[in-house]
Amino acid sequence: MKNLIALGFEGSANKIGIGVVTLDGTILSNPRHTYITPPGQGFLPRETAQHHLNHVLPLVRSALDEAGVSPAQIDCLCYTKGPGMGAPLQVSAIVVRVLSQLWKKPIVAVNHCVAHIEMGRVVTGAVDPVVLYVSGGNTQVIAYSEGRYRIFGETIDIAVGNCLDRFARVLTLSNDPSPGYNIEQLAKKGEQFIDIPYVVKGMDVSFSGLLSYIEATAVEKLQNNECTPADLCYSLQETVFAMLVEITERAMAHCDKKDVLIVGGVGCNERLQEMMRVMCSERSGRLFATDDRYCIDNGAMIAYTGLLAYAHGATTPLEESTFTQRLQKGYRCYSSETHRYFLSADVTFFEDSPFFSTSESLPISEVLPFPLISPPDAVPSRPLQIYHRHHRVVVPPSLAEVPADSLPIPSASPAPALPPFAGLPIALRKGNRSTRNPHPIYNFLSYHRLSSPYSAFVSAISFVSLLKSTPEALSYPGWRQAMVDEMTALHSNGIWDLIVLPSGKSTVGCRWVYTVKVKIASVRLLLSMAVMRSWPPY
Amino acid sequence: MEAVASRTPDAQTLPSEWGFSCDLEVDYESQEIASIVYSALDVDKELHPDKVKRQMSVSDGKLSVHFEGVEARFLRASFSAFVDVLTLATKTAEEFGKGMESWHHSPVPN
């Protein structure tokens, strides 16, 4: 039987690569060209697509010539369908569509991630490994389990390669041949380990927070000569690779596999391979890794994977030979300028400064998802009397200064002066916290296991009714007395003066909160005192 | 191969919503090549069909494209992206469309 031959096109990121491969895994040719940006800059879709446009046709020619294959000998044309950047993906797709019609050859669309894994397996001969797929766009721990590839762990924000690339931009390292390679070389000179947040969340990892951290500290420490760029590269590598080794090991334990295969652009980092190899040998397994020819995006991996699919009867009709952009994973962000939401993985967290400045009055309904209860619109016709914070210097306070009509009867405070939410108890304003416990038993509270003095205490405080409005409270003698006491205390301590509302000022309301303050510590104190004093429990 | 492009951003003669239009014609002098390019480019739909519309047709070995957009900038972005891929498809057809029988090895470009 004739050995099938495929021509594969890869162009999902900043590399355009074309490979010629046979079904037994022999790579006849695999040329590629990388779009290299100046130090400190990343690659953008439009410019990357322009780069691919300029290089794709000469690469097709050289791939065929190097392999010594004519178009007639080729069985199928494979291209990367996704995930990746839209405009660069389109370049491969268009060339494949035209060639397919010119040469009358079928098209096979290939998933970029699957191609990395299949290529890694055929090059290394790994049989059933846990796969760590690490590149500029992906960070996943994958294992073949019960009939399909399953993702056991992944990044919850940016990919590890993206993290390294962006850090390289901070240090303005060269992008030639790749930022990751230059970080790796510089890290070998690192002498000092700097603590960086280590973010593993169960089976997943997160890099955006530690990137924010190291971006902020890097500039500061470098200026103060506390460390060198090499120290930072070394520390960053050690930290992120340790995180990757940890989640890989967890997946291995989970699905009971011994071997690890590393694929993707970051996979050719020798420090990552070394750390992973130690972990594998401790679990009496083996590490399979490839060098930069196969780790980094290339056309041969697309050709090989497409050819496997073709050999099993799968082809893609021309009209379905589309490309799929990567669905951006990221944080849902709100822009206070455009008042709109957008999705971004490029998020810097400033934990010690609030996002909303206090002077800014943003309509709450646009920020928060719950409905706004509008206050009653009542405009006071006469100047309001308000309580004004008493100046500390004005001592001693005298009750005589206070007009007689301000005596501490809360009903005297005019209702329109209340703030928007004043009519509602705090618990309602905040919304409810749902516990989502499905069992009906959750709705019952049992007192019978409590010790008798505690039970008495709990039932005593449970009996105190908590009220929602001031008029309601005034009808209870206990609460009324408590309010009168409180106001008397405020007056006698000279905390407030009663003045006329200055023009141009508005009132900041206050309201009565009726609740019983109980802390478990104070309950314990009460009980221990009861025991010490031998109070009769009742 | 000749390309004729005419732009008529004329707000009066068109319905108010699609106020800007643009036409492009490429003469391949070959019905086959024109159809191949048409099929290759027709797969990708416009990204914002509510902002820019694209209609293509092939006749007499010519590919005609008609764009309509709600704003000049959308039309310009869409048109410019389209010309890039149209050029790519055309170049591919020119370079590899000689027929497989006459395929011969050329030296590897440096």
UniProtKB/TrEMBL annotation, chain A:
Q: Which residues form the Gcp-like domain?
A: 32-304
Details of cofactor binding: Binds 1 divalent metal cation per subunit.
Q: Where is the Retroviral polymerase SH3-like domain?
A: 328-360
Q: Give the lineage.
A: Eukaryota, Viridiplantae, Streptophyta, Embryophyta, Tracheophyta
Q: Is-annotated flag, keyword Nucleus?
A: yes
Family per similarity comment: Belongs to the KAE1 / TsaD family.
- Acyltransferase as a keyword? yes
* Residues annotated as binding a divalent metal cation: 112, 116, 133, 297
What is the organism of origin for this protein?
Vitis vinifera
Q: Which cofactor does it need?
A: a divalent metal cation
Q: PANTHER family per the record?
A: TRNA N6-ADENOSINE THREONYLCARBAMOYLTRANSFERASE
Gene3D superfamilies with a match to the protein in the record = 3.30.420.40
Q: What InterPro entries is this protein classified in?
A: ATPase_NBD (IPR043129), Gcp-like_dom (IPR000905), KAE1/TsaD (IPR017861), Kae1_archaea_euk (IPR034680), SH3_retrovirus (IPR057670)
Q: Which residues bind substrate?
A: 133-137, 165, 180, 184, 269
Please identify the protein, giving its name as recorded: Glycoprotease 2
Which reaction is catalysed here?
Answer: L-threonylcarbamoyladenylate + adenosine(37) in tRNA = N(6)-L-threonylcarbamoyladenosine(37) in tRNA + AMP + H(+)
Q: Which UniProt keywords apply?
A: Acyltransferase, Cytoplasm, Metal-binding, Nucleus, Transferase, tRNA processing
* Localization annotation: Cytoplasm; Nucleus
Automatic annotation (TrEMBL), chain B:
**Family stated for the protein in its record:** Belongs to the CTAG/PCC1 family.
Q: From the Swiss-Prot or TrEMBL record, state where the protein is found.
A: Cytoplasm; Nucleus
Coiled-coil ranges from the UniProt annotation: none
Any single biological process term in GO: tRNA threonylcarbamoyladenosine metabolic process
The record's section on InterPro entries has: CTAG/Pcc1
Can you tell which superkingdom this protein's organism belongs to?
Answer: Eukaryota
The name this protein goes by in its record: Uncharacterized protein
Give the UniProt keywords, A-Z.
Cytoplasm, Nucleus, tRNA processing
Q: Which GO terms describe its cellular component?
A: cytoplasm; EKC/KEOPS complex; nucleus
Q: Which organism is it from?
A: Vitis vinifera (Grape)
